[in-house]
């Protein structure tokens, strides 16, 4: 029986493929598209085939092979290596498809799709170019959204707002309304929004003692506007909480120096005192107080009862004062009537007729004797009208 030894190995490489030939586990050559007859006489032969349509050369030892066999591989493979302060914009057939982080090594096959890598130095400048931001900022496609989330801090500043750009914990810039992107590599990026519109803050249910030791609950409202965002950012950790405390302290001080009667008599004066007291302190921190208003002054239950009793007593006192006055007016009226009646004989008789008219409305029958100087001698019968 004859023994048969295989002397050749046939390898077919497609147009979209490239193959790496290894002899005895050592790199030997790149096999371009076509039919290849590989001699087996020199020992163990291994062939690795790659699809160049995938662009990236993902061999585990790609960098090693290029460093040691660059003269052979250079005709088929191109590599890009970024420093620790560079970002790569990876374009394929003119489309931005990936972003390479600093320190990335990327090898790509030649002869497939057109590949280009744009290098961006982010050592000092970390603002994303407007054209790149337009492509990646809103993440139009799923792939772009993934890329943008990993590489870019994308921020939109709406109208009537500003953005505070904080880099590595330091305030770097005040951003006006618009769209902004910043590279997140090698640094910490944060953008905080500040609302520049007129805002309202409520100080609710503050229990305060007046000067005459009466406990009240007061609700206060204030309107403010940020005028210097940089001061607010540098001096205040929480500007709304700062305004709340200032209003609270000023309200307590203003109420504590007034009696209950003076507070109830003029709430507008209390508003003016509070606004005047805090305006300068807020202005020092970049905030303008537009107005302050006391919404409610709530008395405790027992105090409401006392005030109600005081009001009722006051009304009774006014009524007691009015009764003598009314009686005095009645006496004066009677005196005047008497004077008039003394002045003419007919007037008494008219008075009698007026009295008869009132009486007739109440009784069924009445007799009048010697009225009007004896003219009504006989009885006069009166009946109610239908």
From TrEMBL:
Transmembrane segments: none annotated. InterPro entries: Band-7_stomatin-like, Band_7, Band_7/SPFH_dom_sf. It is a single-pass membrane protein. It is found in: Membrane. Residues 152-311 form the Band domain. Its main location: membrane. It comes from the Bacteria. SMART domains: PHB. Belongs to the band 7/mec-2 family. PANTHER family: BAND 7 PROTEIN-RELATED (PTHR10264), BLL5629 PROTEIN (PTHR10264:SF83). This is Slipin family protein. It comes from Microbulbifer echini. The lineage of its organism: Bacteria, Pseudomonadati, Pseudomonadota, Gammaproteobacteria, Cellvibrionales.
């Amino acid at each position: 029986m004859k023994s048969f030894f295989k002397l050749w190995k046939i390898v077919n490489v497609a147009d979209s493929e490239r193959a790496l030939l290894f002899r005895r586990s050592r790199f030997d050559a790149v096999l371009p598209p076509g039919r290849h007859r590989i001699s087996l006489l020199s020992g163990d032969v291994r062939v690795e085939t790659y699809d160049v349509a995938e662009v990236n050369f993902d061999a585990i030892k790609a960098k090693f092979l290029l460093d040691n066999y660059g003269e052979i591989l250079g005709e088929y493979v191109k590599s890009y290596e970024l420093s620790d302060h560079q970002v790569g914009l990876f374009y394929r057939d003119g489309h931005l498809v990936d972003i390479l982080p600093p320190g990335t090594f990327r090898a790509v096959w030649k002869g497939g799709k057109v590949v280009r890598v744009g290098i961006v130095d982010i050592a000092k400048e970390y603002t994303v170019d407007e054209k790149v931001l337009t492509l990646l900022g809103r993440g139009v496609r799923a792939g772009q959204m993934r890329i943008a989330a990993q590489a870019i801090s994308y921020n939109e500043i709406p109208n009537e707002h500003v953005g505070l750009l904080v880099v590595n914990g330091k305030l770097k810039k005040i951003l006006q309304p618009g769209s902004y992107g910043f590279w997140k590599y090698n640094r910490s990026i944060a953008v905080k929004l500040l609302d520049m519109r007129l805002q309202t803050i409520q100080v609710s249910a503050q229990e305060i003692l007046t000067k005459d030791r009466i406990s009240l609950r007061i609700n206060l409202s204030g309107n403010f506007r940020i005028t210097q965002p940089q001061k607010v950012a540098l001096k205040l950790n929480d500007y709304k909480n700062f305004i709340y405390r200032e209003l609270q302290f000023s309200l307590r001080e203003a109420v504590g120096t007034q009696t209950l009667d003076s507070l109830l008599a003029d709430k507008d004066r209390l508003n003016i005192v509070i606004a005047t007291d805090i305006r300068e302190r807020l202005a020092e921190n970049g905030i303008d107080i537009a107005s302050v208003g006391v919404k409610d002054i709530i008395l405790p239950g027992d105090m409401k009862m006392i005030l109600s009793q005081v009001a009722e007593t006051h009304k009774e006192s006014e009524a007691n004062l009015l009764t003598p006055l009314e009686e005095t007016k009645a006496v004066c009226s009677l005196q005047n009537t008497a004077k008039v009646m003394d002045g003419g004989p007919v007037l008494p008789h008219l008075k009698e007729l007026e009295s008869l008219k009132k009486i007739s409305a109440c009784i069924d029958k009445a007799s009048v004797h010697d009225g009007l100087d004896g003219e009504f001698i006989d009885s006069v019968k009166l009946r109610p009208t239908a």
